[in-house]
């Protein structure tokens, strides 16, 4: 998991010291900066996006809620405050947690864990969205094909043929290039001339790979180990 980047903002220096002390005891977090002056924090955060902001609410010149609303992006936020009357507003702003001072390490760590879990979930969803389709040029036209519709890819010299239930696409590319480009999407090489989506494979034997739609494709001897790891 990537490190959770954090900025702390509180007009009381002891609170900043506490944030620093607690963060130093938690794995996979990076405390990027601490600010006692909210305007300075706003200027910094506007130019330097981070994953999570830990904010006091009642601060001079600009309070924590206004600071959050004035950012050009929406980071995760934990309010760390003595005020209890802003809990409903915090809920409306989708903050990840609301901590009331004084805060012990267990409560702080729980809030950070929630931020980590949310960020991991969000990243996985964004990755899933990116992986729902692939784009390629065929017959001088850019095509966008749902990933689940790719039955297999067959190598034909300087070209590859991408097979879907509706159409076959001739693409000027090599199998090795396609394999490298889309390996992270679940494609697997089963033969020097065939690549399939691992999710479409139901079984295999000494000579063939069997797909969900009933088709079977030749299995190359040198590619069996990849299938073993898949199953």
Describe this structure in words.
The structure is a single chain. This protein is α/β, with parallel strands linked by helices and about 230 residues long. The protein folds into 2 domains: about 5-130, 3-Layer(aba) Sandwich (Rossmann fold); about 135-230, LytTr DNA-binding domain (OB fold (Dihydrolipoamide Acetyltransferase, E2P)). The chain is built from 7 helices and 15 strands. It has helices at about 15-25, 40-45, 65-70, 85-90, 105-130, 175-180, 225-230, and strands at about 5-10, 30-35, 50-55, 75-80, 95-100, 135-140, 140-145, 150-155, 160-165, 170, 185-190, 195, 200-205, 210, 215-220. Strands 2-1-3-4-5 form a 5-stranded parallel beta sheet. Strand 14 and strand 15 (about 215-220) form a beta hairpin. The longest helix has 26 residues, at about 105-130. The chain is elongated and about 70 Å long. It starts with a strand and ends with a helix. The model has no long low-confidence stretch (mean pLDDT about 90).
Please tag this protein with its features.
single chain, 231 residues, alpha/beta, Rossmann fold, OB fold (Dihydrolipoamide Acetyltransferase, E2P), 2 domains, five-stranded parallel sheet, five-stranded antiparallel sheet, 7 helices, 15 strands
Furnish the topology, listing elements before pairings:
Layout: E1 4-9, H1 13-23, E2 29-35, H2 38-47, E3 52-55, H3 64-69, E4 76-81, H4 87-92, E5 97-100, H5 105-130, E6 133-138, E7 141-146, E8 152-156, E9 159-163, E10 168-172, H6 175-182, E11 187-191, E12 194-197, E13 201-204, E14 208-211, E15 216-218, H7 224-230
């Amino acid at each position: 998991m990537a490190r959770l980047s954090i900025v702390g903002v509180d007009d009381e220096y002891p609170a900043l010291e506490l944030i620093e002390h607690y963060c130093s005891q938690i794995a996979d977090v990076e405390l990027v900066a601490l600010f006692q002056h909210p305007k300075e924090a706003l200027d910094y955060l506007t130019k330097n996006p981070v994953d999570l902001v830990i904010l006091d609410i009642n601060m001079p010149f600009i309070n924590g809620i206004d600071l959050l609303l004035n950012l050009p992006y929406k980071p995760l936020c934990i309010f760390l405050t003595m005020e209890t009357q802003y809990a409903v507003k915090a809920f409306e702003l989708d903050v990840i947690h609301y901590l009331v001072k004084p805060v012990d390490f267990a409560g702080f760590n729980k809030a950070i864990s929630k931020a980590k879990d949310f960020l991991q979930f969000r990243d996985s969803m964004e990755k899933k969205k990116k992986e729902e389709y692939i784009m390629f040029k065929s017959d001088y036209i850019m095509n966008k094909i749902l990933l689940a519709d790719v039955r297999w890819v067959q190598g034909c010299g300087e070209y590859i043929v991408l097979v879907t239930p509706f159409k076959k696409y001739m693409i000027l590319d090599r199998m090795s290039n396609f394999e490298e480009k889309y390996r992270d999407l679940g494609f697997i090489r089963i033969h020097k001339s065939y690549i399939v989506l691992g999710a479409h494979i139901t079984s295999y034997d000494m000579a063939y790979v069997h797909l969900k739609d009933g088709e079977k494709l030749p299995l190359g001897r040198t590619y069996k180990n990849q299938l073993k790891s898949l199953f």
